[in-house]
């Protein structure tokens, strides 16, 4: 199903950060009728190192040399911008719409419009809660609940290794964007894991919006409120980096006075683990571009695809970070 890309130029909306990528990004008009597959991608924003790597994974995959023309939109973490971008993709009659939904709910109407227009929707990264599963074709992303559970298992083992398995442990939680499936799943996995051990007390949980600045601000407030924090769970690396700065400013030693566990495992997290400032990073692989490319190429060849597709994920700490850092792609 190919669209005459030249026609879409007349409908392209300038507002909302809508830009063309993959050839037309430089403003050159595409040859009308080129046989490229036009993909509209509604990205969450640019809030974290993970997101930067995720965006690059799409921009480097969906290029004309690979048979695509990408229309990319950065929603600046606002759902209304993503909905506007999806509507503009529908108006441009793209071949596929890819969405990384900033939160899980509020998508039924606009996905119904895409369905009515006959445009397949692929979800990447975060998930949507929908009453009608036919509104999207498939989803590629991380297992956020497992990531949360694995982080507590790591803490249980670490405390045993350092002889603190029987001590009361006070925990604070820096949550991601409330209502995003990454936050929902990680929070559930972490809180369920903590609840299984009576030694753990969750003192406070608050969103840091997946950003370093807000993560630092919330950690500063936690440190003012509690002088006996033993562990911080940060639902992404950038909030952990902010927490590290706050802990240092409070005269405490991150990674020693306060154990820090984060999610994503970007390259900088490896550096912090090696420096002893971060204790554990649970991976959430952002390289979804090639997976979505594979899905579209399968569909274009008349094939079928799995509805739910998890990416490979690991867990890193002082025992493996230095050895594996050279292998990290993001
Ligand atoms: C996870 C992704 C989250 C990352 C954050 O798949 O949705 O959003 O953990 C990013 O770094 O902001």
Tell me about this structure.
One of its GO terms (cellular component) is cell envelope. This is ABC transporter substrate-binding protein. It comes from Candidatus Avitreponema avistercoris. The chain is α/β, with parallel strands linked by helices. It has 11 helices and 13 strands. It has helices at 5-8, 49-61, 79-91, 108-116, 144-161, 181-195, 212-225, 237-249, 267-275, 289-300, 321-324; strands at residues 18-21, 37-43, 68-74, 96-99, 121-124, 138-141, 169-175, 200-207, 231-234, 259-264, 280-283, 308-310, 315-317. The chain has a 7-stranded mixed β-sheet, with helices on both faces. The chain has a 6-stranded mixed β-sheet with strand order 8-7-9-10-11-13, with helices on both faces. The longest helix is centred in the middle third of the chain and has 18 residues, at 144-161. It is elongated. The two termini are 33 Å apart. The site of beta-D-galactofuranose (GZL) has 14 residues, from helix 2 and strand 10.
